Amino acid sequence: MAVSKFGIFITLTFCTTLIVVTFLNLLPIEVVYLYITTSVITFAMYAFDKSAARNGKWRIPEIRLHVLSLLGGWPGAYYAQRKLRHKSAKVSFKRTYWATVVVNLTAFIWLFSEQGKHLMNGIFA
Length: 125
Description:
Helix content: over 70%
Order of helices and strands: HHHHH
Radius of gyration: 15 Å
Oligomer: single chain
Number of strands: 0
Number of helices: 5
Strand content: under 5%
Shape: elongated
């Protein structure tokens, strides 16, 4: 239960922070679009994989789910794990998932550094 509450806290804190820093013009709106898009795609991939698992069909490799989380789909992955009860019990999967969250959050924080701001100005200018 503690891990679940921690996950909810991290996800809600991140989403709130993302909205606030975008509203304050500290990040371009495209960053929000990136997180929303990758989260929706990631949730859909989890749903597809859950259905495939139930029906004995071709499964999505775990590495693809992790790459989507790493690219910003981790909030969608977290929601899918809770809502669909998919990939929520396998310890090795969860460890890797949380590693992708840490790496993604580190990259997100880096966007506020001088180098990160320079990169964003080059991409979104």
